[in-house]
Amino acid sequence: MRFSRWRGGASPAPSGGRLRTKSPRNRRCSSSGSSNEDTSEDNGMPVHLKGGSADALLYRTTMALTVLGVGYVLFELVKAAFPQKK
């Protein structure tokens, strides 16, 4: 006997077993390919900088938040490991 998590034993998917979406199944990529060419050419630049100044700013912001987050986690771990005596 198979048990279902859904009430009434009915599955949440519509009949046919597939979820229906509004996007077409046969979506094709852009035929121009120009955006892919600048990121795939080998010119010695890292991929995160090939998109221009907006990508560089996003990368630097992400790295800064990551470093600050790791520092804060380490600070909280040390604070929890050595509680203050009252």
TrEMBL record:
Keywords: Acetylation, Membrane, Mitochondrion, Mitochondrion inner membrane, Transit peptide, Transmembrane, Transmembrane helix
Compartments, record wording: Mitochondrion inner membrane
Segments traversing the membrane: 57-78
InterPro entries on file: Cyt_c_oxidase_su7a_sf (IPR036539), Cytc_oxidase_su7a_met (IPR003177)
Cellular component terms (Gene Ontology): mitochondrial inner membrane; respiratory chain complex IV
Transcription regulation found in the keyword field: no
Any GO BP: mitochondrial respirasome assembly
Biased composition (Basic residues): 19-28
Pathway(s) where this gene product acts: Energy metabolism; oxidative phosphorylation
Residue segments, region Disordered: 1-47
Membrane protein topology class: Single-pass membrane protein
PANTHER family per the UniProt record, alphabetical: CYTOCHROME C OXIDASE POLYPEPTIDE 7A, CYTOCHROME C OXIDASE SUBUNIT 7A2, MITOCHONDRIAL
Family: Belongs to the cytochrome c oxidase VIIa family.
Protein name: Cytochrome c oxidase subunit 7A2, mitochondrial
